[in-house]
Amino acid sequence: MSYRDFDFDHTQQLHENNLELWAALDIARSLRGIRVILTPRLSARLKIGDHHMPATLLVGSTATAVWQEFSGPNGTGDKLPPAGAVTFSTSDGNIATVDPSSGLVTAVAIGSATISGADAANSLTASDSVTVTETAQSATLTVVPN
User: Fold this and answer.
1) What is the domain range of residue 5?
2) Can you tell me the distance from the alpha carbon of 67 to that of 77, in angstroms, rounded to the nearest whole number?
């Protein structure tokens, strides 16, 4: 066997090993996707905007209801995508409206309302409250470097 033959055989073997590796990675990606689809969703959480507390909105302003499903009870475990389409509703459309498909909440009048979401594919529901005010309740100031 010449050096040239050895180099060709070695290159061919590396190419075959790479193909096997890519095939294994494709299978792993597919299995991960199947695991996410098959993992039961045991709880869901809905929050208005990116707040950790109930949202306070000024009349005329908007926020988005953010839906998240979890593999464990009470918002624990792995975060999972919704099993189906999530629909949103409001307890009082005179205070705050919500787009049923996008979750866009619009503050209409002073008061409080509960925004709820439901995933019909697995019967999970969650809600968050929104308080609508006419004037700002607090302010923050942050100095950031240029």
Assistant:
1) 1-38
2) 15
Q: Is residue 142 part of a domain?
A: no
The per-residue pLDDT for range 41-76, each reduced to its tens digit, is 778 887 887 666 678 999 999 999 999 999 888 888
Who has greater pLDDT, 12 or 89? 89
Backbone angles phi and psi of 95, in degrees to 5: -100, -50
Closest CA relative to residue 121, chosen from 81, 82, 88: 82
> H or E stretch including 103?
none
pTM for the complete prediction?
A: 0.66
> In terms of domains, do 33 and 76 share one?
no
* Cα distances (angstroms) measured from residue 3 to each of 6, 7, 15, 86, 127: 5, 6, 18, 64, 71
20 lies in some domain: yes
User: What whole-number distance in Å separates Cα of residue 67 and Cα of residue 63?
Assistant: 13
